[in-house]
From TrEMBL:
Transmembrane segments: none annotated. Keywords: Dioxygenase, Fatty acid biosynthesis, Fatty acid metabolism, Heme, Iron, Lipid biosynthesis, Lipid metabolism, Metal-binding, Oxidoreductase, Oxylipin biosynthesis, Peroxidase, Plant defense. InterPro entries: A_dioxygenase, Catalase_sf, Haem_peroxidase_animal, Haem_peroxidase_sf, Haem_peroxidase_sf_animal, Oxylipin_biosynth_metab. GO terms for molecular function: peroxidase activity. This is Peroxidase family protein. Its cofactor is Ca(2+). The keyword Heme applies. It comes from Sphaerisporangium rhizosphaerae. SUPFAM superfamilies: Heme-dependent catalase-like, Heme-dependent peroxidases. It comes from the Bacteria. Coiled coil: none annotated.
């Protein structure tokens, strides 16, 4: 033993090396998802308790009933504080304000005379950025050894509000969950803690029951002991349900209530265990040391001021992790508390949600999903009768939710102490933030600008295959457009729309060109100019994406941040930060977006000023102009209906309306146009409005998936146990550049006369706005409405995008797309489809039967497993009526629902109180056709009568030459 350790032992201290924490699963990383699942379970307990008690609101999972809450107590450390206990805020004579909450321990608000434990929570307010939450109960040990036992107990006892139910919980449910010995120990502990009548909480002793770090002294447990001179209390009442509160109020009317804060030092793992909450730290092993005095001053607790203070205290979220690293909590129970208390508090305050799955859905779901897996080996979902196909799609979506949502958030493992989280800006409860933060109020950064892309499949990081086969060869042989292949069921507005949407959803940040580049070797004899005026080179170069360093830090990053928000929030129109958003509004913070004679205002480089303007071309200009005008129309309508609304409120309400309208158009108009089948039309309308109202469909969903009985906007937010984000695979399936033609005819809608023929290069970048201004929005819409986009297939990539200037670099976008997928760890096509529950290909002929394509695939790729994902998606023979592959569609049905389901502004806060009744009506009544006609009513004769605006329009007959 070292001299330091001997000295520490003589002083009664525990050397640091003598204690350590032990993690469930062996590591902090393995333990974390277990605790997150326990947090979900506790939220379900809260719901069950609410239902069982008939309460109007969701209470705390524990300590539901407040006995006393006040914010004017004081904690004073003793002048003779032992030297080794002088750490951080714990200094001799230091005094701090304290918030105190005394409560019953149960998760149900029961009468004070019901058998129960009692709890104390303190918030020691050291300074504006430092506070320490201490949580205690009036029994020295927990009934649960660890977090799992705590949650299993809460689940078993939730709703057990009658003697038969309690007996069933005690003697059947709890032993089944934890075993007979653990259940018996928990019964003994709880019986010992609750059988003693409590006269007054001022006379109770409270124990932490778990350890915390106390600076250099190491682990301690703490407790509150009532002052020895405290006046006695009358006998406990058997009739007054609030007698403890009444007793404290009477006591505080005449005297202070005083407690002593004490600590017990860690000795060793046997006598003072850290991980076992059910173990007592006996005083003969570790003496109690008084360190401070807590004084609750004499006061009248019945005044309006006191009642308001108590309400504020009752709304607080106490958490032992509201502290500093010097005093961080220790042990299994405390580590679980971080996730559990955060979830429970957010659930109680309406900032987080949980959707219980009925037991019948769980039971029926297993054989249904298994049955469809077997059936789909013989008959794919799209060849089934409509009603059966609809249930098949729902089964597939549930399987994808279970298997294909991978959390890429970098977690705190083990958890770290933190300051008390600041209160949420109340304005963010009723409006979208500029950067996408605070959509989920319990996790403000979720989905915001800069948050990581998620994953649907485990990434495959193979640097040795980055250039195999050569992506330039793949592009020239399999993607290059020789002859334009049209998609005859669509118009070019459908192509413009999807780029308009993708710019709202995803944007990988790039390094400035020339600072960090990707290098792609060219095939022998080929040269490439990497800048418009640069020399011919033997290497193709383009800007590398900025990655997020991997957690291990041992390999190149394949985790990337989104420079757009992940939410469906119209950021392509409004911008992704406050500075950009304000610059787009009328001067002086007006509600309307700035327009110049109905067009977007020009920027310094010729491209307009709008929320997102990269890769700018006429299709984007049409969409941005149209929806900027629509925003201003909503603003005018809101002002007319609600003349007292401020400009700021009008702007943010209009943004909500436009974002929801865009989401609706994409869900029920654009997607059914590109996936043109009755089944998909029904399924997507069900996403927004709910399923068909026939008894067989309703009964099937009631048995199998109750949550699908209504449209998603009528449900609660649900992330399906993985924080919301868009994914790298989602980016891959939306690579639909073949939709864009290389040349365009601009026509006059009244006469049908051709105005001019233009190439893609002549309607993109700085040249775009001159075209739309001389053509006009109506003629631009008409010209795109009567023309077909390209089909999403091989040999149809726009030639103009294979030599495309962007940000000073000259790129082949088809090569960039291939290389990006490889470097981002997207599995190659065969593994990609297998990961989405499709059978592996065994030979090239399983992918295509077209002789030329088959020959080129075999020429480019050595094996079917090498086929690039984008190539495979383009080559795949899609279901009848589909504009893209079934493999891509599988990710679509997962992520399209998720974009709606996770967003509180499209679920729980999609309501008149947030949007206004006018705003809700605007979203309900409008679609793409009505938006076009509001701003270009002269196009009424051209728009389809019985189909959507993304299908081919009626062309005006041209005069004879």
């Amino acid at each position: 033993m070292s001299k330091v350790e001997k000295r520490e032992r003589r002083a009664g201290m525990a050397p640091k090396a003598m204690w350590r924490e032990r993690y469930v699963g062996g590591t902090p990383e393995a333990e974390l998802p277990i605790f997150e699942k326990l947090a979900q379970d506790l939220m379900l307990v809260q719901l069950r308790t609410k239902k069982a008690t008939g309460a109007a609101d969701i209470a705390r999972a524990f300590q539901a009933k407040t006995i006393l809450g006040l914010d004017n107590a004081r904690l004073t450390f003793h002048a003779d504080l032992p030297g080794d206990l002088r750490a951080g805020f714990a200094q001799p004579g230091a005094e701090y304000p304290v918030i105190v909450r005394l409560s019953n321990a149960s998760g149900a608000r029961r009468p004070d005379f019901a058998p129960d434990l009692r709890s104390a929570a303190l918030r020691i307010q050291v300074g504006p950025d430092e506070a320490h939450d201490l949580l205690m109960t009036n029994f020295p040990v927990s009934h649960a050894r660890n977090a799992r036992e705590l949650v299993m107990f809460a689940r078993a006892m939730a709703g057990a509000n009658s003697t038969p139910r309690k007996a069933f919980a005690w003697f059947v449910k709890l032993p089944m969950a934890l075993g007979w010995s653990s259940a018996a120990r928990m019964r003994r502990n709880l019986k010992a803690g609750t059988r003693r009548p409590v006269r007054s909480l001022a006379l109770e002793r409270f124990w932490s029951r778990t350890a915390i770090l106390w600076g250099e002294s190491g682990p301690v447990r703490y407790q509150l002991r009532p002052a020895t001179h405290a006046p006695p209390a009358p006998a406990a009442s058997r009739t007054d349900p609030d007698y403890l509160r009444h007793e404290l109020s009477r006591r505080l009317a005449t005297t202070d209530v005083v407690f002593h804060l004490c600590v017990q030092r860690y000795v060793d793992a046997r006598r003072t265990p850290i991980e076992d909450g059910a173990a007592d730290w006996r005083e003969e092993d570790t003496p109690v040391i008084p360190v401070a005095t807590l004084t609750i001053p004499r006061q009248d607790t019945a005044t309006a001021e006191a009642r308001a203070a108590e309400r504020r205290v009752d709304d607080l979220a106490f958490n032992p992790w509201n502290t500093t690293e010097e005093f961080r909590p220790l042990g299994n129970l405390n580590r679980a508390r971080k996730a559990a208390y955060e979830a429970g508090s957010a659930h109680r305050l309406g900032d987080r949600f949980v959707t219980p799955v009925p037991r019948r859905n769980t039971v029926v779901g297993v054989p249904v999903r298994a049955g469809f897996r077997l059936l789909n080996r013989v008959v794919p979902w799209h060849r089934l009768p409509s009603r059966l196909g609809l249930v098949n799609l729902d089964a597939l979506r549930q399987a994808l939710r279970q298997d294909n949502l991978i959390d890429t958030d970098i977690k705190q493992a083990p958890p770290k102490a933190r300051p008390v989280p600041p209160p949420i800006d109340e304005r963010l409860r009723i409006r979208r933030s500029y950067d996408g933060s605070h959509n989920d109020l319990s996790a403000p950064a979720m989905g915001s600008v800069g948050s990581a892309f998620g994953r649907n499949l485990a990434p495959v990081h193979r640097p040795d295959l980055f250039d195999t086969p050569n992506p330039v060869v793949v592009s020239r042989e399999l993607l290059h457009r020789d002859t334009f292949v049209p998609a005859r069921s669509l118009n070019i507005l459908a192509a413009a729309w999807i780029q308009f949407q993708v710019h709202d959803w995803v944007d990988h940040k790039r390094y400035p060109f020339g600072t960090k580049t990707v290098e792609v070797p060219l095939p022998p004899g080929m040269r490439w100019r990497n800048t418009p005026e640069g020399p011919l080179e033997e290497m193709m170069r383009f800007a590398e994406n900025e990655g997020i360093a991997s957690i291990e830090g041992t390999r190149p990053p394949i985790l990337f941040a989104n420079s757009a928000s992940h939410w469906w929030d119209g950021s392509e129109v409004y911008g992704g930060d406050e500075t950009v958003a304000m610059s787009l509004r009328e001067p002086g913070g007006g509600a309307e977006l700035r327009l110049d004679q109905g067009h977007l205002p020009s920027g310094p480089n010729g491209t307009p000023i709008t929320g997102f303007r990269e890769n700018w071309w006429l299709g984007l200009s049409i969409m941005h102009t149209l929806f900027a005008r629509e925003h201003n129309a909503v603003c005018q309508a809101l002002r007319g209906e609600y003349p007292n609304m401020s400009d700021d409120s009008v702007y943010h309400t209009a943004r909500l309306v436009i974002s929801a309208l865009i989401a609706k158009i994409h869900t029920v108009e654009w997607t059914p146009s590109i996936l043109a089948t009755d089944l998909i039309d029904t399924a997507l309308h069900a996403n927004w409005y709910g399923p068909p109202k026939n008894w067989l469909t309703q009964l099937g969903l009631w048995l199998y998936d109750t949550h699908a009985l209504t449209g998603i906007p009528k449900t609660l937010p649900d992330h399906h146990n993985v924080p919301y984000s868009l994914t790298e695979e989602f980016v891959t399936i939306y690579r639909m550049h073949p939709l864009i033609p290389d040349d365009f005819e601009i026509a006059d809608h009244p006469s049908g006369r051709r105005l001019e023929n233009l190439t893609l290069n002549e309607i993109q970048g700085a040249a775009t706005e001159a075209v739309i201004r001389r053509t006009g929005l109506a003629n631009s819409l008409y010209s795109f409405g009567i023309a077909h986009p390209g089909a999403v297939t091989l040999h149809n990539f726009p030639r103009a995008l294979q030599a495309f200037e962007r940000g000073g670099e000259l790129i082949d976008l088809s090569v960039v797309d291939l290389v990006r997928d490889r470097r981002r760890g997207i599995p190659r096509y065969n593994d990609f489809r297998a990961g989405l529950h499709k059978p592996l290909l065994r030979r090239f002929e399983d992918l295509t039967s077209q002789p030329e394509t088959l020959a080129r695939l075999k020429d480019v790729y050595r094996t079917v497993d090498e086929i690039d994902t984008m190539v495979g998606l383009f080559a795949e023979n899609p279901p009848k009526g589909f504009g893209f592959s079934d493999t891509a569609f599988r990710l679509f049905i997962l992520m399209a629902s998720r974009r709606l389901q996770s967003d509180r502004f499209l679920t729980v806060d999609f309501r008149p109180g947030i949007y206004t009744p006018l705003g809700m009506d605007w979203v309900e009544r409008n679609g793409m056709t009505s938006v076009i006609l509001r701003h270009c009513p002269e196009l009424a004769a051209a728009l389809p009568r019985t189909a959507g605006a993304f299908t081919p329009w009626r062309a005006t007959p041209r005069p004879h030459p």
